[in-house]
């Protein structure tokens, strides 16, 4: 991997991720205002890798299981799939990673960048925080934020409402966009930025993409369309992390290697794609989930937010407004980008969209068709869980009982040790919808 030393990757993984379901972290009473000095250029890659591992690991596994892209079939994942195993301790890992390994480190780094006038660096760190916060509040709803990450000063942080967290995210992204348009400051991101290699235009477009994702959930469709139009213009601008090889492999490869047989491709998604004669994409996705999977490879390029997601946002807003050629073209562009992501070419794509069930023509496109195609195109992307909750598409039947969970439990450690946390019995993962979904 050209832009980061492989040894650094291995050390980061060894330090930060000790096991699939293990508690991960350090001293929760560490004071972030008095940290051991770490240069920004050393801090940034570790936090970015933690982001990719958290989003492509537990967020991907749990969210995509709930929307029936993958199925838990063995060991504890079988009980997770039945929803009965989704107890608070199962969410310790992503909660701890989010706060200790990402948000806490970002706070320290932002303080350093702000104090030294490193404007572009600060903007990048703010985009990273906004992305992390949105992913977290989308599954946990209200969360400690303004009163959190203060070490011993606030060991029982209060919970901010999701609405206030979203407001903070939007302000953070607006501030970052302004910073990107001004003077860089004395230190600019370079090769230590393992996501974009210091490309500020790419970071600027990513900030707009994250805003578009959030505004869709806030039902600000005009705003989402505007932001999506300012986001990445091709898949080359995707917000991703490229894992190097098996010694520091992507989260899905590591899971399939260490927990072979726990998760497999879901029959619901298989049936949907089969009905649409989506055989070429299905052949890539629907393989035994083991180390020989030809898509979930060691050097997986973990996506965080993409061009094809933006195209489907444009298509969705356009359909809601009556439908135009531009929106229809965006819909097709999203599908094509999915084929390209899976290593498929024009011939496979052309045959697929020749079907009227897939490409019915301008004026005949429906919200359900847009969302079903987005669901397929965003295989293993955690955002599919938010899409299903806000639109009801694709149509899913609970694996057991009468309801699919609409949120995650808080971490067991938060229930136990934060006196400002609701109790476990006060949180119902089947009925307590997150703020934007009420």
Describe this structure as you would to a colleague.
This protein is mainly α. It has 2 domains: 6-270 and 283-306 and 380-437, Serine Threonine Protein Phosphatase 5, Tetratricopeptide repeat (Alpha Horseshoe); 307-377, no CATH class. Helices cover 52% and strands 4% of the residues. The protein has 17 helices and 6 strands. It has helices at 6-16, 40-66, 75-81, 92-116, 119-140, 162-180, 200-217, 221-229, 251-258, 267-275, 279-285, 307-320, 325-341, 346-353, 367-377, 383-391, 412-417, and strands spanning 70-72, 143-144, 159-160, 239-242, 263-265, 301-305. The strands form 3 sheets. The protein has a two-stranded antiparallel ribbon. Helix 2 (40-66) packs antiparallel against helix 4 (92-116) and helix 5 runs antiparallel to helix 6 (162-180). The longest helix is centred in the first third of the chain and has 27 residues, at 40-66. The relative contact order is 0.14.
Rounded radius of gyration (Å): 21 Å
Q: Tell me the CATH architecture of the largest domain.
A: Alpha Horseshoe
Biggest sheet: strand arrangement: 1-5
Instruction: Sketch the topology as an H/E string, one letter per element.
Output: HHEHHHEEHHHEHEHHEHHHHHH
Beta-strand residue percentage: under 5%
> What is the makeup of the main sheet?
2 strands, antiparallel
From the helix content, strand content and strand pairing, which structural class follows? mainly alpha
How many structural units, i.e. domains?
2
Outline the low-pLDDT stretches: 1-36
Helix content percent band:
40-55%
Shape: globular
CATH C-level class of the largest domain is Mainly Alpha
N→C terminal distance? 44 Å
Q: Using DSSP, what is the number of strands?
A: 6
- The DSSP helix count reads 17
Round the mean pLDDT to the nearest integer and report it.
Answer: 93
What CATH calls the topology of the largest domain is: Serine Threonine Protein Phosphatase 5, Tetratricopeptide repeat
